[in-house]
DNA sequence: ATCGCTTCTTGATCTGCATCAAGGAACAGC
DNA sequence: GCTGTTCCTTGATGCAGATCAAGAAGCGAT
């Protein structure tokens, strides 16, 4: 159970809540570890927990009758998902899958609701988290509708570059298949987008990305 | 100023707040009326108000550098927008436009924040509203990514039919151009989708829609 | 290193929708 | 009713990206 408390206590959800209470809650939290591509929660199932990603990445997806599924979000360490359940609702609105493997903390929904009644600040915290998620979702909709695949990829790469740097090298945090899903693309389309960005100074070798000129890349958005 | 208090007091945002306080707030609220396609708020501008649609419809949209814009939501009477500002943030994340004309109520953000500190239940209410918006946005993303134009239109029509009815006639609540935007389509694509749904028993004359068999239409989703 | 598996890339094809352009229907004002 | 305007539809074309199929590259295990 690596580094349990340090990350846990910094959770946005518990800001302003009595330290002792948080520690109690942390003690009550369950932890689970998942291999790559394992299902963490199933869309439509009765919801009992709010999750927090401790390690690795978690893909949230919705699926249609035909079985195809679309990712709606990729959660990073520190992210919360299922927090919308705090305000009611009894079922998960999406499935959650571990990306390349993930460790998550589970908080009993009933515990959290009790705690939230006791510490109203938790509702404020919940709003703050949901604000982030909502703005992200709206950006996603607008991005899908306004930008081409290449533009969305360029945008993603720029978002991973420090604002001030002129050229950057970094590793993708997860498999390209996952990134493609996050951007609403088939894996092939992501490859082609990378290829299309070569003239913009982007070089991709495995999971390593070299951005020759952030400014140039920014123009490709 | 038609029917000011009745709708206002039922606002999700003020559930559980002292009746007298709500009435004070209602008195302090400004009202504005807009002609079709007028701008109500501008993306990126400093935010000072949370809005509530009293009448008509309001389109929320984001735009890209090139000037093209995409609708991310259409708000109906009773809907709140800009509520995410309660938890911080200082600028509007989207533009808002009146659809076929709209009347909105404006609540000063600073007033609301003060009130929310006094009545923590408002944060819970805010969460409830944002939950609705967030789930809607996620449905939208998944819908865009998984369904064709025809399926999305079929889906919209079904959502406007009472669950139990077998055949239904109703009027579209706004111009088709607006509906197309809401569904992420060009107006032409909406027309073609309607045409494609004729075999599913859908007939469209002007703003009037006849659904011959809701069950049949449901299969087209 | 070599093997074997997974992940990624590239090419070919096809579909869905945007876009452009023009004709037709609805509707408000007179 | 007519007339002008707005809104919608239909047709033709083009492009972006999905999908299918096969080959290449990366990577962990031995």
Automatic annotation (TrEMBL), chains A, B:
Record-linked SUPFAM superfamilies: cAMP-binding domain-like (SSF51206), Winged helix' DNA-binding domain (SSF46785)
Top-rank taxon: Bacteria
Transcription regulation found in the keyword field: yes
Transcription among keywords: yes
Protein name (record): Crp/Fnr family transcriptional regulator
Pfam family membership, one: HTH_Crp_2
Alphabetized UniProt keyword annotations: DNA-binding, Transcription, Transcription regulation
Residue stretches making up the Cyclic nucleotide-binding domain: 13-86
Top-level taxonomy: Bacteria, Pseudomonadati, Pseudomonadota, Alphaproteobacteria, Hyphomicrobiales
Domain HTH crp-type: 147-215
Cross-referenced InterPro entries: cNMP-bd_dom, cNMP-bd_dom_sf, Env_Response_Regulators, HTH_CRP, RmlC-like_jellyroll, WH-like_DNA-bd_sf, WH_DNA-bd_sf
């Amino acid at each position: 159970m690596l580094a349990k408390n340090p990350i846990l206590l910094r959770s946005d959800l518990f800001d302003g809540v009595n330290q002792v209470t948080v520690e109690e809650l942390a003690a009550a939290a369950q932890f689970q570890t998942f291999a790559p591509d394992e299902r963490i929660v199933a869309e439509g199932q009765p919801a009992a927990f709010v999750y927090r990603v401790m390690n690795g990445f978690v893909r949230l997806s919705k699926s249609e009758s035909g079985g195809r599924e679309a990712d709606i979000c990729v959660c990073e360490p520190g992210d919360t998902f299922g927090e919308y359940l705090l305000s009611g609702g009894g079922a998960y609105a999406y499935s959650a899958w571990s990306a390349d493997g993930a460790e998550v903390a589970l908080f009993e929904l009933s515990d959290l609701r009790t705690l939230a009644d006791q510490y109203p600040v938790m509702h404020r915290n919940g709003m703050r988290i949901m604000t982030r998620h909502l703005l992200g979702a709206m950006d996603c909709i607008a991005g899908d509708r306004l930008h081409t695949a290449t533009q969305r990829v360029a945008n993603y790469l720029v978002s991973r570059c420090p604002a001030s740097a002129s050229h950057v090298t970094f590793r993708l945090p997860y498999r390209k298949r996952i990134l493609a899903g996050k951007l609403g693309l088939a894996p092939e389309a992501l490859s082609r987008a990378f290829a299309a960005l070569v003239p913009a100074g982007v070089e991709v070798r495995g999971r390593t990305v070299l951005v020759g000129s952030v400014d140039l890349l920014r123009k490709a958005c």
